[in-house]
Amino acid sequence: MSALVRMRLTGFVRTGRALAPLLTALVVFGVIYGGGRAQAGEAYGFSAAVMFPVLAWQTQILLNVEPDVQRQLSIVAAGGRGRELAAGLIAALVPALALIGMALAVPWLIGGITGPEEPGDASLASGVTAGVWAHLLLAPPALLLGALASRAVVGNAARGLAVLAGGTVLAFVLGTKGSPVPWLVPPLLPTARATVNGLDAPALGVQTAVAFAWTLAALAGYAALRRRNT
């Protein structure tokens, strides 16, 4: 399985497909921090939500690099469909963590983060901790949305784009305040709101539970659709 992970990562990088999400992430960082400095919790919470579609798109690109016939061979070589699915998601996790690392580091390089300015503001450590938590809890749902939009599930690029765009739009729309069904989608906006005042462990704990439940449901759906389409 480790060989399959390396093969997919190598194909993703050597074909140049890694550049598109990387450049998109850099543009996103420029937009977020181009207007001036913000406190860590607020900035990182917003960054985690906006990076969600980038991570999902990157996952879709990585999983689509492998030709369909080669994917069938990979199932046999890996020792079963479950191991092949796991290898794909592990391979997608590696560049996702790299982008998350950039999302956490770039603001410091361009002066986008500021410490507390008023007596009631959260500490810098609290904001950074909340921001790291926010990025990590939204990464698994992003990877699963990208997997659900991959060619192995939907069959072609047009349907994949529809799943990717539709899932992202719904996540933002149903995550607004007052939404009757926020638990149907990954908690993008609720997570961003939970980090505004720094580390709010109870609020972030709730969003982590929602993200975990959504990830498990999406993983089950992904596995079922792959079984049906393979």
Write up what this structure looks like.
Helix 2 runs parallel beside helix 5, helix 3 packs antiparallel against helix 5 and helix 3 runs antiparallel to helix 9. A two-stranded parallel sheet has the order 1-2. The model has no long low-confidence stretch (mean pLDDT 90). It has 230 residues and is an all-alpha fold. The chain is built from ten helices and two strands, in the order H-H-E-H-H-H-E-H-H-H-H-H. The longest helix has 29 residues. The radius of gyration is 18 Å and the shape is globular. The two termini are 19 Å apart. Helices cover 77% and strands 2% of the residues.
Major sheet details: 2 strands, parallel
Number of strands: 2
Q: Return residue spans where pLDDT drops below 50 for at least 5 consecutive residues.
A: none
How much is the radius of gyration in Å? Answer: 18 Å
Query: Which quaternary structure do these chains form?
Result: single chain
How much is the average pLDDT? 90
Terminal Cα separation, in Å?
19 Å
The backbone outline, from C-alpha atoms, is globular
Order of SSEs: HHEHHHEHHHHH
Q: What percentage of the residues does DSSP assign to strands (E)?
A: under 5%
The side-by-side strand order for the widest beta sheet comes to: 1-2
Return the structural class.
mainly alpha
